[in-house]
Design brief:
The structure holds two protein chains of two kinds. By secondary structure, chain A is mostly helical. Chain A has helices spanning 2-14, 17-36, 40-60, 63-66, 68-72, 75-81, 86-115, 120-148, 154-179, 181-210. In chain A, helix 8 (120-148) runs parallel beside helix 10. The longest helix of chain A has 30 residues, at 86-115. The two termini of chain A are 23 Å apart. Chain B is of the alpha/beta class. Chain B has a single domain, classed as P-loop containing nucleotide triphosphate hydrolases (Rossmann fold, 3-Layer(aba) Sandwich). In chain B, a hairpin with a 2-residue loop joins strand 1 (4-14) and strand 2 (17-27). In chain B, helix 2 packs across helix 3 (98-108) and helix 3 (98-108) crosses helix 4 (124-138). Classes of the chains: A mainly alpha, B alpha/beta. At the A-B interface, helix 1 and helix 6 of A face strand 5 and helix 2 of B. Chain B: This is Heme ABC exporter ATP-binding protein CcmA.
Chain lengths: 211, 192
């Protein structure tokens, strides 16, 4: 399990995955000031929500690379004959994906907050929310990757599958910026549900994709 | 080492279509079986059923001992050096001295000189040999090889035959799906 996680983390960083996610995240946060104008007070008010929406879109970026390549390359088959269950594979991938994308994303919220004129307090709430929500987001990304593996146009389908399921994370994550601890607790509940349920669903999807 | 595979009245279906019906197969320790037949008849699917990667539509499969699988895909990370890519799998096998096993397996497949070369630079035939090296390094009791000779030169095919013979001599079992002639003495023939 440890070797599996380490392999995926290494591939996540080596493939430029983390850099791409961070660059995309910052690019989306830059788009909003351009779109709604340089009104600092307005940006400060909507900035937290923008960071959350950008994080969601950035998390969608690597979905296609998470599961499908290993199914095609026969890696999943080789693990299966060694008695590694698909659920374990999915859990390892979830943990590895979180390690590969969440810490760089959390660091990137600092320049994003500067771009959006977010105060230190609001940045702290956004960062705390992302720290709590990203495990759920990682599980959702791996689950989506497993569900769409092998489909034609998997990238577009992945967006349609993943974004609606990520809406609760977005609502409670962005809500916690104004709602405080209550919002964070609801966010944690949703994140926990996704983190636990994701590998089970992803494992079943991997099992089906093998056959 | 003692590996065995037994399939009882197995039916294999893919995508709702029955490919193979009523297969009975028993490979005892030291035994071998060759699954032969034209393209698309279900050789690979039958082998996947024997490996437990695919559920049979009917019947059941029993395996004794650990399994090494060689499929169509190499399952070696393209960016890693050959020895490192194989060492990852050797570590998954949970046997003693994975590095020594990998080095020995590379030598057995005449890949010793390529140990430091990233997998993406290997030719098709070299990749097939690397996949065989993983089977050798696994030390598994049952070898399930899908078209192991495809892409191999004459020397490597001979080497493959020797390795299979050596594996059987120590009590291992081998099932090969192939459309190429392989010298496997006393192997059970399964014609699909």
């Amino acid at each position: 399990m440890g070797a599996l996680v380490w392999r995926d983390v290494r591939r996540g960083y080596a493939g430029g995955g983390a850099t791409l996610v961070v660059a995309f995240f910052l690019l989306v946060t830059v788009l909003f000031p351009f779109a709604i104008g340089p009104d600092a007070a307005l940006l400060a008010r909507v900035g937290g929500g923008i960071v959350w929406a950008a994080a969601l879109l950035a998390a969608l970026l690597p979905v296609e690379r998470l599961v499908a390549p290993d199914l095609e390359a026969g890696v999943v088959d080789q693990l299966a004959v060694r008695g590694v269950s698909p659920v374990t594979i999915a859990a390892a991938k979830t943990l590895a994906h979180w390690i590969a994308f969440a810490p760089p994303l959390l660091l990137a919220t600092i320049p994003a907050a500067a771009l959006l004129n977010l105060s230190g307090d609001r940045l702290a709430l956004v960062a705390a929310g992302l720290a709590i929500g990203t495990p759920g987001l990682a599980a959702l990304a791996v689950t989506t990757g497993a569900l769409v593996a092998g489909l034609r146009g998997a990238g577009a389908v992945a967006g349609l599958v993943m974004l609606p399921l990520a809406v609760p994370l977005l609502i409670f994550g962005a809500g916690a910026i104004d709602g405080g601890a209550g919002g964070l607790k609801l966010l944690a509940a949703v994140s926990l549900l996704l983190t636990v349920g994701g590998p089970i669903v992803a494992g079943a999807a991997i099992r089906m994709a093998m056959e | 080492m003692s590996g065995a595979v037994r399939a009882v009245d197995v039916t294999v279906a893919r995508g709702g279509r029955v490919l193979v019906e009523g297969i009975d197969l028993a490979v005892a320790p030291g035994g071998a079986a060759v699954v032969a037949g034209p393209n698309g008849v279900g050789k690979s699917s039958l082998l996947r059923v024997l490996a437990g990667l695919l559920r049979p539509a009917a019947g059941h499969v029993e395996r004794e001992g650990t399994v090494a699988w060689m499929g169509e895909a190499a399952a070696l990370d393209p960016e890693r050096a050959l020895a490192d890519a194989l060492a990852f799998w050797a570590a998954q096998d949970a046997r003693a001295l994975p590095d020594v096993r990998v080095a020995a397996a590379l030598d057995a497949m005449l890949l010793g000189d390529l140990a430091d070369v990233p997998v993406r630079f290997l030719s098709t035939g070299q990749r097939r040999r690397a996949a065989l090296a993983r089977v050798v390094a696994s030390g598994a009791d049952v070898w399930l090889l899908d078209e192991p000779a495809s892409g191999l030169d004459a020397g490597a095919v001979e080497r493959l035959e020797q390795l299979i013979a050596g594996h059987r001599a120590t009590g291992g079992a081998v099932v090969v799906a192939t459309h190429q002639p392989l010298a496997l003495p006393d192997a059970a023939q399964v014609a699909l």
